[in-house]
Amino acid sequence: MATRKKIALIGGGNIGGVQAQLIAQRQLADVVLFDVVEGLPQGKALDIAHALTGFGSDVSVTGTNDYKDIQGSDLVIVTAGLARKPGMSRDDLLKTNLGIIKSVSEGIAKHAPDAIVIVVSNPLDAMVYALKHYTGFPKQRVFGMAGVLDSARFRYFVAQELGCSVRDVVAMVLGGHGDTMVPLPRYSSVNGVPFTKLIAKDKLDAIMKRVQGAGGEIVALLKTGSAFVSPAMASIEMAEAVLLDQKRVMPCAAYLEGEYGVKGIYVGVPTLLGAKGVEKIYEFELDASERALLDTSVKAVEKLIAEINL
Ligand code: TXD
Question: What is the pTM of this model?
Fold first, then answer.
């Protein structure tokens, strides 16, 4: 008899709490919320558990400060780390979050050595690279959440512009999770009609600029942290693709070994997500301007990864 899958959420902060709630509401898996702050994961888990009756959900939701409790997790999602404050770039989090990712990697490698790991912590492209390095897990089992959020933002802004349902809008965003990310309007469409055929260039350029700055826009408004519902939702869409073996085609930060002419770093590319993690990387032709934008983004990621010097 198939038993329920198990997800460990490493980081019980703003995003972790929403992730736990979404997993419970969707009855996706049993969930263990881990954090280093005493009481935080336990309190959030208990609160969500008290809502299971309302959700009509029978998953188990627990909180812990002990890595032993993540034993046997099929999937681990990592949000451990500091979030941005106004005026901070994602890169400003590098040194602090690198130390956190090192300790998190040790806990995962010891207690969930066969798990698939989705990294969310910023600066994303460097943190996912560091976690793969520290855990020694194969590239298929370690990947980052960025493009699903960035493309969700792209889809939302286009749906708003056209007054159509978000369900009929698909979008592709490549590259690093930063200001140099590469929205691809040519490969984004409303029911098959490319954005470039539906929206005037100046308006589309303004939308793409807003997508690149969307994280910072929320940080400036919230003042005390960064986006958390939309990143949680994006990571749970990826978690579902893995745990339900959905073979979704989603932009993920994946480890490249020659794809798109890139070697040895994580970059956002279209991937096939299923039970084994990143099961395939899709390469498609880019025109000269798209290629130039991707090269700029790759250079930004390479610079960041060089700084962590692993
Ligand atoms: O698209 C994306 N990938 C980004 C990611 C979108 C938005 C936010 N992005 C990043 O996720 C953000 O810049 C942060 O680096 C992470 C988590 O964001 P969140 O908003 O959840 O931050 P919080 O609320 O500060 O939560 C972080 C938790 C907090 O409860 C700490 O106690 C915990 O991390 N923490 C740890 N957990 C485990 N182990 C260690 N060592 C640890 N240190 C701190």
Answer: 0.97
Q: Backbone phi, then psi, for 47, in 5-degree steps?
A: -60, -45
3-state secondary structure of 2: coil
Count of Cβ atoms closer than 10 Å to residue 223 Cβ: 8
Any idea which residues carry the catalytic annotation? 177
Residues of the chain with pLDDT below 70 are: 1-2
Do 186 and 301 lie in a common domain?
A: yes
Q: CATH number of the domain at 55, please.
A: 3.40.50.720
**Whole-angstrom distance, CA of residue 165 vs CA of residue 169:** 7
Look up the CATH number of the domain holding residue 191. Answer: 3.90.110.10
Measured from the CA of 124, which atom of ligand 1 is nearest? 3
- Do 37 and 151 reside in the same domain of the chain? no
Number of domains in the chain: 2
198 sits in which H/E element: helix 195-198
pLDDT at 192 (0 to 100): 96
**Residue 2: predicted pLDDT:** 65
Measured CA to CA, the distance from residue 236 to residue 226 in angstroms comes to 18
243 plus 205 within the same structural domain = yes
Q: How far is CA 191 from CA 155, 165, 197, in A?
A: 12, 10, 12
Q: Give residue-wise pLDDT tens across range 45-74.
A: 999 999 999 999 999 999 999 999 999 999
Ligand 1 pocket check for 219: Cβ under 6 Å: no
In a domain, 231, yes or no: yes
* Domain interval for residue 101: 6-144
Q: How far is CA 248 from CA 112, 252, 287, in A?
A: 24, 11, 25
pLDDT at residue 220 in the model: 95
Q: Is the shortest distance between the CB of 124 and ligand 1 below 6 Å?
A: yes
Residue 1 located in a structural domain: no
